Structure formats: structure tokens, C-alpha cells
Amino acid sequence: MEKQILVDMDGVLADVYSQYINYEFKNTGTLLHMEELEGKSEFSFPSFRNYVMTPGFFRTAPVIPDSVEGLHYLNERFRVLIVSSATEFPQSLTEKQAWLNEHFPFITWQQMIFCGSKESIRGDIMIDDHPKNLNHFVGQRIMFPQPHNNASQVENCIRVSGWKEIMSLNWMGVHA
Amino acid sequence: MEKQILVDMDGVLADVYSQYINYEFKNTGTLLHMEELEGKSEFSFPSFRNYVMTPGFFRTAPVIPDSVEGLHYLNERFRVLIVSSATEFPQSLTEKQAWLNEHFPFITWQQMIFCGSKESIRGDIMIDDHPKNLNHFVGQRIMFPQPHNNASQVENCIRVSGWKEIMSLNWMGVHA
């Protein structure tokens, strides 16, 4: 049977860090640098929490470089499910689906899961930027780079540099 | 470990049949009777598909009798996840969460999953009205009565008459 791969949205497809920097600049005039965000969860910034509750934040987020090509690559080889933590921010639900439909039109509504916790979603491979999600996952773990996870250690996890590396992985050797 | 129970929303918590009858009457003046709906999926009625795409349909759906008490009962004994097919009708996502928050305030955002397909959601027990969902489920299957499933046969499935019976089940004997 085709392997099932769970792909995270924020920080893997949607560039929420860049969006945070955009919002902070527009709202306060302060230009944050990625280095200031390193090692910290995006949710540790109070202004981040405010912004994600603002209508439009998820709907207008930039797309992570090479993710359209990369997800298309995976979608032709695996059963892809987009699994996104969304119910904490209710207005994000409809925005996230509209955003996916716009940027990844080859992903169908059958392939989308919006949840609170990812612990109960079954899959063979997970691509995520959050150690809390990867740590719970039984299967091949792939960590996508984001400033908050630079120093994170997750057992039995492949750390990639981005979507180009995901496309160059030896997928025949990635086991569940 | 606490058993995990997946509870469907439409047809188990939300009375979408009554809502359909309400909408049909308001829109066409025709009063449908439950008997006319028997044995047919609600989605086989073209007007049903139109109504579920109308803003407000899910947000104002009536609550299934005894479901508040019943879900509260389960929530004190199991790890409850509300699993709802929602991504086919994008505007339903935010409406469904607001509806849950209003009528079932003891269910947290961590306990909600809005998806396209339920096949990849892990659990020990599933309460659902749709045979297509129960048939895929590995674990104890409980069918909730709705006009469309009166004659449906699902293997290894307990058919209940409603929430009162769910509360009176011998849960010690319900195995995963």
C-alpha cells in the first residue's frame, strides 16, 4: 500500500515567521531579524499570538520556498495528508483551507485535516517543524528547519534543510 | 491508558436532518417527513447540498436530543475526540467550531478534528451515523440512528437508539 505522509502547514508550507516579521513591522515599525527569533517558539512572543488571531494573518501568509514543487513531488509518490493545528485559532480554519486551495490546488479537500492535537493522526512519515508533534509520531520523522528548532533534538529524526533536500532524499530508504 | 472515543458531529450531535427539513420548508414551503428521507443519504438530495453550502446552516443546526448530557457522560470516562467531515464545505469549518463551543463548552479545541476523510484518525471506539466511516474503523463501532442508515448493515457494530442508550451501555464490556 502507498505510504501515507503527514505534512504540516505552518512553518513547512506557510511562512508564518516571515508573516510575523511583516506584521510586527507594519504594526510597530520594528524590523525583527530571524536571528532574534532563534531557539524560541513563535508562540512565546505575545505579539505573535495577537497577530495569529487577526483575520487575514493565515490567509495572506507567504509560501515557503520550493514548497509548491516539493509537495507536488510528494503528492505524486505518496498518499499526502495536510495536517494543521488550527482549532486553537478558530478564524484560521476557513483561512487555511482557502490558502491551501489557492497555492496548492492539487491538494483536495479529502487530503486536509485541521485539528488541535496531531497525536491521533495515523501516518508512515511526518514532516513538521515542531518537536512536540514529531516526538509523538510513530513512523519516520522529518524535521523542517525553522528558527525555533535550530537546537532541538528529536530522536530518530531526519533533519532537512528545506524542500529541495526533501525532493533529493532517497525515498526508497525512508521506512515507516 | 484511557480509551479514545471518536464522536461524529452531523447526525450524532447536530441534527442536520431537522435542519434540512427547516430549510426546505422555509425555502419552498414543502414540509418533508422523516419517512421520505429514510434509506437515502442526506447528500442524495440536491437541495441538501445547496443548503449546507449556505452560511448559517451548520451554525444554527438544532442539537440532537440528550447529546449534551451524553457527551458530557462520555467526556468524564474517555478521551473524547469530536471528528467531523467538514473540509468539503469550507465555510462549515468555523461555523462548526462556534457551534460546538456554544452547545458543548466542555469540549476543548484540543479535542476537535475537522477533516475530509476519517480513515486516518486513530481511536478505540467510534460513534457515527455513516456506514462509510464505521466500515473503515478498526475498533468498536457504534452506529447512531438516522433515517439514511435504517437498513444499513455494518459488521461488528452496535446499533443504538440514541444518546440515552449510549449512556446505559455496559462500557466495561466495550472493547477496542
Automatic annotation (TrEMBL), chains A, B:
Q: Tell me, what's a Pfam family for it?
A: NT5C
Q: Which InterPro entries match?
A: 5'(3')-deoxyribonucleotidase, HAD-like_sf, HAD_sf
Q: Which SUPFAM superfamilies does this entry report, sorted A to Z?
A: HAD-like
| Residue numbers annotated as active site | D8, D10
Extract the GO molecular function terms from the UniProt entry: 5'-nucleotidase activity
Which family does the record assign?
Belongs to the 5'(3')-deoxyribonucleotidase family.
What's the protein called, per UniProt? Answer: 5'(3')-deoxyribonucleotidase
